[in-house]
Amino acid sequence: MLGYFLADRNPLNPPGEKELFAEDGIFEWGHAQPLEKVINSREDVEFLLKNPNLLRNCITIIEPWEHVGVNTLGEDVRASKNVAYIAQKVADIDSVLLPVWSTGIIDPEIIVPAITCGYAVVVEGGDPSTYDESTWTSPACPREDMFALVEKLLISRSPTSAPAIFICVGHQLAAEGNIGLIRRAVKEVLGMTSLNGDRSGIALRSLQEVAGRIEAIGKTLQVKKRDGRVVAQGWNDRHFAVTRNESKEVGDRVLLPYQSPDGDALDIPWELIHAHSVTADAHEGVIDTTIQYEHEVSISMFHSDEVNEEAVLFAKE
Questions:
Q1: Which residues of 175-195 are buried (b: 16+ CB within 10 A; e: fewer)?
Q2: Which of 37, 134, 147, 313 could disulfide-link to 272, CB 3.0 to 4.6 Å?
Q3: Which residues contact 147 (CB under 8 A, 6 or more apart)?
Q4: Rounded to an integer, what is the distance from CA 98 to the centroid of its chain?
């Protein structure tokens, strides 16, 4: 829907303006429509499960942190309100907020199947760093609980489920989740002694050979900065998926189509480069499509951490 909106961004008859603020001028979660749908307890989840249309016709926004920063007026910035505002303006879609920083992670086995029946799931940003457990200071939602929720979201995705969009810390959590899931899957495969239907054991040996190759690359893959510094050594390093940026990104940045790196120059195994090339050829990138509509796309960046290119290329393999 956003793609169609951008493609038709200058129509002769633009959609009429719909006032989204309450009569008192407040636009805040839990105050009034369209921000009245907030999950604050398990009882709220059970109510939504009994009224599935409320979830089916909405996007769900997950807040891992209370806010994403403070503006020049000293006000906390809740980016989730921006997402809800855009969803209303672009597609007249309501939003449901799940502020896990205050509610905690309500049983992923229940909440994930419910929210992935809607239009989309958006995992928002915040201040913590995924590689530093001490920065997750909310007693209700420690880092490991957030990892578990995101991993459940990742493995629940299918061609018919709601798309999941990971922003800022959400993006970092998605990277950590992919690496964690791959690491555990490899461990389980290498620990198997039999495979159903594989009487000769040939299929299991083949599967374990692939898993062994993935493990070998994962354990030895280095993450390097452009100045040559090695910041992570292998997938067990806490900085493998996400690490500190060379400098804070603050302000507008122009998005560019991704280009495969020079594996020889960066010591990245050829398998990772090849896997990305195959994936890029088979699928159309959201950013690339958006650039086709706009020719130049600028976004505001407020990042101290970054997802490592090597880790994402490894996850694609």
A1: bbbbbbebbeebeebeeeeeb
A2: 313
A3: 173, 176, 177, 180
A4: 15
Going from the C-alpha of 277 to that of each of 107, 182, 284, the distances in angstroms are: 38, 20, 12
Taking the C-alpha atoms of residue 142 and residue 4, their distance in angstroms, rounded to an integer, is 38
Q: What is the distance between the alpha carbons of residues 233 and 230, in angstroms, rounded to a whole number? A: 7
Q: 197: closest CA among 187, 182, 207?
A: 207
Q: What is the pLDDT of residues 246-279, one digit of tens each?
A: 877 777 888 888 888 777 767 888 888 888 888 8
Please count the other Cβ atoms lying within 10 Å of the Cβ belonging to residue 234: 13
Those residues of the chain that have pLDDT short of 50 are none
Give the C-alpha separation, 87 to 81, whole Å.
10
pTM of the full structure: 0.88
Look at residue 190 in the predicted model and tell me its pLDDT: 97
Q: What is the CA radius of gyration of the chain?
A: 21
